[in-house]
Amino acid sequence: MIHDERTSSVPPLLNVGFYNFVLTDKIVALVRIDSAPVKRLVQQLRREGTRLIDATQGRRTRCVVFLSSGQIVLSALTQETLAKRLSRPEALFAPEPTEEELPEAEPAE
Predict the structure, then answer these.
(1) Burial letters for 54-87: b for 16+ Cβ neighbours within 10 Å, e otherwise?
(2) Which end of the chain, N or C, is more open, meaning fewer C-beta atoms within 10 Å of its C-beta?
């Protein structure tokens, strides 16, 4: 098998749900959406239309991923699920959860 230089130079990617990926070396924090300050921050960024990447595909936001670039990614997966994927290299490209594992889509607020 021929060694490909691209595979060794590309940092690992984290599947944040629905086959949306984030570079693992850019992740600063995984935060739950439960607190009022985090909810306010997300609403402010939605209004501004900048720095917010919505990877929920219409599902309920469960986790906010803060990146070193200042961007914020919204995920329908919990921070526990994402943290497990980060801690196990073989799970970075984990298959998508089944419909039973994800909550139903909620109408936009």
Answers:
(1) bbbeebebbbbbbbeeeebbbbbbebebbeebbe
(2) N
